[in-house]
Amino acid sequence: MSEILCQWLNQEVKVSQTVSPKSFAKAFSSGYLIGEILHKFELQGDFSEFSESRVSNAKLNNFSRLEPTLHLLGVQFDQNVAHNIITEKPGAATKLLYQLYIVLQKKKKSGLTGVEIQSMQPLANARQQSMKSEAFRDRLRNLIPRQTDFNLMRVTHRFQEKYKHMKEDLVCMHFEKLEKFQKLKEEQRCFNIEKQRLSRRRQNEIMAKIQAAIIQIPKPASNRTLRALEAQKMMKKKKEAEDVANEIKKFEALIKKDLQAKQSASKTSLEAAGQTTTDLLNTYSDDDYIKKIQKRLEEDAFAREQREKRRRRLLMDQLIAHEAQEEAYRKEQLINRLMRQSQQERRIAVQLMHVRHEKEVLWQNRIFREKQYEERRLKDFQDALDREAALARQAKIDFEEQAIREKEIHEQIAVERAQARYKKHYTICAEILDQILDLSTKVADYRMLTNNMIPYKLMHDWKELFFNGKPIYEQASIKHLPAKPSAEQLIELEKRDLLDSNDYEEYKNMVGEWALPEEMVDNLPPSNNNILGHVIHRLVEKSHPPRVKSTGPELPSFAIKGCLLGKTFSGKTTALKSLQKDFPVQILSIDTLVQEAIKAFHDNEKISEALPTKQEAEEETLPVLREKSKETQDLQNVSSPYPVSEEALPETEDKTILSTDTNKTVKVEEVKSSDSFSELTARARLGAKSEKLLKKGKSISDMLLVNILVNAINEIPVDQGWVLDGFPMTLNQAKLLEEALTGCSREVLELEAKKAQISTLAIDPTASKEVPPPPSALDFVILLDISDNSSLDRMNGTVAEAFSSETSPENIIQRVAAEKQDMDAAQNLRDQIQHRIIGFLDNWPLLEQWFTEPKNILIKINAEVDKESLCRKVREMFTTEIMKKENEVKKKLEEKEAEKKEVPPAEPLALPPLPPHLEPEKEKEAQPQQELSRTPAKGKPPSGSPKGRSPVRKGPVKKSPADSTDVLPVPIVTPPPKPGSEEWVYVNEPIPEEIPSFLVPYWELIENSYINSIKTVLRHLREEQHTVISYLYKVRTNFQHFLRRPDHKQDFVSQWQADFNALPDDLWDDEEMKSELHQRVNDLRDRLWDICDARKEEAEKERQDIINESWLQDSIGIMMNHFFSLMQAELNRFQDTKILLQDYYRGMEGKIPIDDIKRFIRVPLVQLDSREILESQLRIPLISRISISLDSAMSKPKTKSILKGKIDYSLENVEANFEADEKLLMDTWQQSSLAISHMVAAEIHQRLMEEEKENLPADTKEKSPQMGTNKKVKKEPPKKNKADKKAKGKSPPMAEAAPVTVTADEIAQMEKRKELMLKIKEEHLAALQFEEIATQFRLELIKTKALAFLEDLLTKVVDVYKLLEKWLGKRYLNEMASVEKLTEAARYHIETSTKIQNALYLDQEDFFINGDLKVFPDPPPPVRPPPVEKEENGTLTIQQLDSLRDQFLETAPKGIIGHKAFTDILLDLVTLNLGTNSLPSSWMHLTQPELQELTSLLIVNSEFVDWRKFLLVISMPWIIPRKEELLETLQRFKAMDEEQLGTITFEQYMQAGLWFTRDEDIRIPENPLEPLPFNRQEHLIEFFFRLFADPEKDPPQLDYTQMLLYFACHPDAVEGVYRALSVAIGTHVFQPIQTTPVITEKTSTLTDASPVEEYPQLKGNFVSEERELREDREGKEEIPENANTEKISMERLLKVFQGGKEVQDANRFATHLQMENAYSENFIKVFRDLGAKNLEPVEVAVLLKHPFIQHLISNYSDYKIPDIKIILQRSEDV
């Protein structure tokens, strides 16, 4: 099945990745290929969102998108299937693909698309499917771990593998340790066995000694009778006799055997003898012989007898000896029996002594063991004491180290904070420097754009951006803003808003660019419209009444309130404890209060029954306080001096009760618990909340802490002062505490002050008085200032007190237990100290600013003093604050008494009677005004108004506008005040409620529209200024580029020069040819002048085209439209203000607001294009501009000329157009001014008409409203207002007008009504006229500024046009002058008859002769021949040395050659046929004996010659190096040899160099044909590399140590050996003093043997050499004490003394040696003699003392430089 699916996927579907059965699960694990299959069948529309990545997020995304599609197809797919596919479970992907294959084949047959299949599904199923998809995503997200989890698992797996390896290593190490332990244990066991064996052996020896001391007494025999003893004795004797008889028998039998053997032998001998006798008798037959035999037989028989006798005698002697022995044995037995008793006694005594000895040993052992036990107990006890002491010391050391670490941590934190501050400061400075750089570059750019004439406005804008920290350059374009602008676009918007605000402020205040011009300086600008400001202020108060604020207690208390702040361990608690002893103040610590609150909750502290009414009263006052009722506030103020604190507490307490009240299914237990909770005191409830937070592991909130603190303050008597210990700690706590204690917040007051100043176009001077700030909640704040290190030191000192005390050994356990508790507390403190210090440092700057503004109540005390001094300072400060508080309270009481004395005269001023329906409203208005006047504002004054506020008047509090009606009935003696002046009393009649709700948003709309319009226009003017500058710069640069466009004058000049130089030489002096050449020059000049004229005409045409462009007219038109838009904004503001005043005063009069059917006046704009637009399509009218032609401009008289100096007729059209634009601007201004005047006149006329209507009879009055309603068409809002008026406002007047009779009171009221109407009219018309004056002034200012702006623009453009003309003329003159110069140069060469070699250049307006470029080349200089080396004084050249090297290298590659072969080669070279070029001429006279002598000088103790040494000698002269130079060169070579191989390449060799360099004083000959001198030193350096390098390697490698050994050769052989040793070791080897005589003797013999006397000419050379040697010896350094302490190995020593040849050693310790190295065995013996048995390196000083080495050095001459010049000189003389 997998193969079928693979074939389908690869061939039919053709997925992007080739799928095989092996990689099936892995290929589909990401879900990408499944999505691709569905996409190819047009089922997966969001396939572009799929990802090929194998991270978990990509897989989750892919399968989440696949799930709806698969469910749509009906394929079984859930989170388990997805998880199996993702985890590559075998068969999961195959099963899904098989189902998908079947479904897709069916779909292919049906021909349905994905959209059709989806549309066929019901809507409910679709919604259910979407919900299932969301659930699938969530479940799949839970099943599939995140990629971070995968990464973590991968990292975990890697670390687990690492852990396994480490564990295996640990196991191996443990096994090795175990093996070592087993081995040690086995060794210990063997040692113990051996020890036991030895002890057993010793014990056996002791027992043997004891046994030896015991006498062995034999066991006594049985007690028998004498007869038995005698019988036994007889038996024994008989037995012995038998034994003797048996032995005798045996002896006799043995003798018989011998006799028989002898007899048989004698018989045979007799027979043989008889036979022989018969033979002999027969032969000789002599009787004497027979007699002799008989005699011999007789003698033998006698001898046998004698032997038998002796044997018997011996046996008898043995029997006698045996008997004697038996007798002695019997005596000994008898003696032993007699001494038996004494032996038993001795044995018993020995056993007793042995037992006593064992008892003594046991007793001594027991005593020794008891002593050991006692010593062990004492030792254990002492160890315990020492251990405790050591632990105490270690704890002290740990504590000191911990203190040091804490200081280091603190210092690190301080450094990090300092670095953060520095980084912040550095960032700020970097930003400032970047802004300065941007400003400088911007100024430089605009200096280039404006020719160093930067406008003031641009510089001012850049400075504003710079001072506000905004970038000068544009960060991003804001022309087309997206829905979510980028950060750069937001910055650009902020920049634009900033510049718009500055421009608007300048425009509004008429400063800066909008300052009054000179012609308007005499006209004073209009001041603020006070009437309009009053109207707006009253409307705002009606629409947004101020909040009612709580007031403080009327009678101030003498109780002082303060807090003591500082870092941890600054001494707060200590100082407050001492302060509490001297002053009756209450100390409040927040920690203690929280603990007491929690304890009160645990103690179930409930409300006492004696005070239920008070608690109920407090609970009843809560909702009333929330409604801000004044009566309840007064009651609360009387009951408690801190009402807000009582209010703040139950708000959070009753949350649980409120929640239980709202819940309908409350259980009985919960109700009981809530009841019991409500019965608790406020402190207990706060403690419960605190404990709940602490149990959850959270910190107590600031609000809860403040509630606990305020609850404790309320329990303190009013007359008693209190001081807070370390509270508040943050700015939020300080704000909450002040709000709880004073009932007001600074932020709320500032926001309300800002809201009170909504209007910015009109200001009410009576409402802009500053309100004094509210009193502070605290009277003083004392800061105990202490450094961080001092705080840490005090903490460490406190904790260290536990370690300073020493206790006796009996109290160890108690001390340890106490120390545990102290250590826990100290550890907690140590853990928190850093956080506390950092928290204080972070929060204190904000707290310091809070306590110093607006009133400075902060007192700082240096707490880094002793305890007594700190307490004394705090007492002094506290006393000072108490005195200050008393003085302030006395002063307030005096002021209140003075106010009470001033208040009674004001009481008779009663308010006029108000209508019944308006009295509550008046009370409400009076209430907020009084409250607002009582609650002083805190903090800085609100910055809502652009102008400053008038100073606060002293005396009684200013009354509200509602109270201003009291002044109306007062008789006026002085002339009537003008409306809007300070003496004017504004009309504050009640107005309908709909009027403020409509007019306040309308006024806000007026203001916003006016401000936005002004800002938009000013922004466009600002941008237009940038556009003008850029355009003029572009015009100048383009014209300059046009003037510099390429011409073809140089082509004519080059052609003329080529023709001129091509003339034949014989025609140069011909006069006719010269005249012809002059004529050619004239033709060239005329042609070049024609080109100049044509270019001038083109430039003039280009300038005229620039002038005739429509850009200037368009720019002027756009700017005029901008100024017209400013006029339109002023007109709109005037018209809207007129309508607002009209509606306001008509509402006050009780009239219906009229709907003005007239359209708003529109200022026409200039039409910039010539397209015809219907008037019906225009919202704003357009006027076409009249472009004045040149002819009409010339015919008109010029009233004003901008052109100065010479008249340019091309610019007259520009000036004429400007005059037309100026006239258009003036006409528009006049029309706007007239429109405003007409509107004011119409309003006055309307007022007069209304007065006339009011004077008509009553019936006409009743009819007029109906006629007005029928004639006028009103809008919806006025209709609604009218309906509201009918519903609300007109019912009381109808009720009053019901009676027919008119009383005197009514007549008086009507008179008052008329007076009020006249006053309203007067005030209305005055406000309108003031607005008219201000608008007319603004329009005149806009007109003046517009004219100046247009004139300035025209001046800039005309200056640019004139500058173009100036550049054109100047360039034309310069080009003509350059042509004249060219003509003069050509005529000069014609007259002098010389060719022009250098090229003539006519570049634009410059003419010059290019000296670097020649028309025909100079003759080439001669080539210097290469340097050639010459022969000097018989010295071989480098070439000859190389040829010799090649020849020797071919013959003997190893460098060693036999002396005969060497002599033959030299002999062949000196012959005429072979050696002409190989050797110098002085060598050609050498004979064979001389060559052999030369070879003998090179042979040293062998038959071979080192040809490299020979070439080194004959290459002289070169500088013989000193020993220091050799070592320095060796070090340089080693530095180049990074791999320490001992070889270097040619590049490294040349880079390191030798001790001499090339010749620096080579003189370069002045003659270029003479070759350079040959640098022999440089070529010698290269030759030495070729000489000593190994040519078989590629590249050649040089053994630098072997080479330097060759250079160690010296005229003195011994010195050469020491130089070679120095090179081999790498350090300086000093020559012992005792070797000097040997060297002197050797040199003397050499000098004696040298033929100096025979050849006097060589005397100088040898004398110089001897002098050098002598100076060298005399100039040697003194040998230091530690000289020659370096060690040298056998290998290096053999390298110095190369004995690889046949050597005849003259040493007395050696013979002729034939081996690989002749000295190796001797050196081995030397090393072993010196103690190096394993041939390890030995010291050089020790080695040099050995006799063999000394003798070898004195006789080794391989390192001597032979003097072959003697032979050469001698051959020359011969």
Strand element count: 16
Low-confidence stretches: 548-552, 609-673, 806-810, 904-973, 1173-1178, 1187-1207, 1258-1300, 1635-1671, 1699-1716
What would you call the shape?
A: extended
The spatial strand order of the largest sheet comes to: 2-3-1-4-5
Q: Determine the number of helices (DSSP H or I, runs of at least 4 residues).
A: 56
Q: Describe the biggest sheet?
A: 5 strands, parallel
N- to C-terminal distance: 112 Å
Radius of gyration from the CA trace? 67 Å
Structural class: mainly alpha
Q: Could you tell me the mean pLDDT?
A: 75
What is the helix fraction of residues, given as a range?
A: 55-70%
What proportion strand? under 5%
Q: Can you summarize this structure?
A:
With 1774 residues, the protein is mainly alpha-helical.
Describe this protein's structure:
- The structure is a single chain.
- This protein is mainly alpha-helical and 1774 residues long.
- It is 65% helix and 4% strand.
- It is built from 56 helices and 16 strands.
- The protein has a 5-stranded parallel sheet, with helices on both faces. Strands 12-14-13 form a 3-stranded antiparallel sheet.
- Helix 49 packs antiparallel against helix 52.
- The longest helix is centred in the N-terminal third of the chain and has 111 residues, at 340-450.
- The chain is extended.
- The relative contact order is 0.03.
